[in-house]
Amino acid sequence: MAKANSTRLLSIALSLVAVLSACSLPGRPGSPTQTTDATMTLQVNPTQAQTIIITPIYTPTVIASPISTPFPPNTPVWSAYNYTCVFVVGGGNMTMHLGWTDRSNNEEGYRVYRDQQVIATLAPNSTSYIDVSFVSTGRTLSYSVEAFNKDWRASTSTITYGCQ
Questions:
Q1: Other CB atoms within 10 A of residue 94 CB
Q2: Tens digit of pLDDT for each residue in 81-112?
């Protein structure tokens, strides 16, 4: 009879360890941050009691999630640019045809700058833009194009022209 009770006690203790190990692991959703010992007192016979302290064993496993490392778009390169001027009093109306090579596959778009101010934001894979602007006599306009994504920008060289 005593051997049967000892076997039963061991079986209960092992079951408790399994339950505590599955339910009380730190880092699992809904579980406490510390593991506590469980104390169980079992009476084998009317004169003898046994106390068992059960400590769940936990070995954390850390799984690293992938981190995307954004990289800059390739710098666009001028492929063509030309302008025409229609002279008017005080200057000229300049039509600037800008063309560049799209060398990126990760740009979110392009920004066209005139005199360091954004005048247009274009879709990815764009390769041209036409700007019409008045240029005062003796003044010039500067243009550049920038490929951009969430974290980076890459710009062409700056070109400068005027109606003379």
A1: 19
A2: 999 999 999 999 999 999 999 998 889 999 99
Answer whether 0.90 is exceeded by the pTM.
no
DSSP string, 23-40: H--TTSTT--SS---EEE
Phi-psi region of 16 (alpha: psi -120 to 50; beta: other; left: phi over 0): alpha
Amino acid at the residue 1: M
Q: For the sheet with 91-101, list strands across it.
A: 77-88, 91-101, 128-136
List, for residues 38-81, the tens digit of each pLDDT value: 565 555 566 666 666 666 666 677 776 666 656 788 889 999 89
CA distance 52 to 75: 70
Question: Locate tokens 């036409």: which residue?
Answer: 130
User: What does the block give as tokens for 42?
Assistant: 């079992």
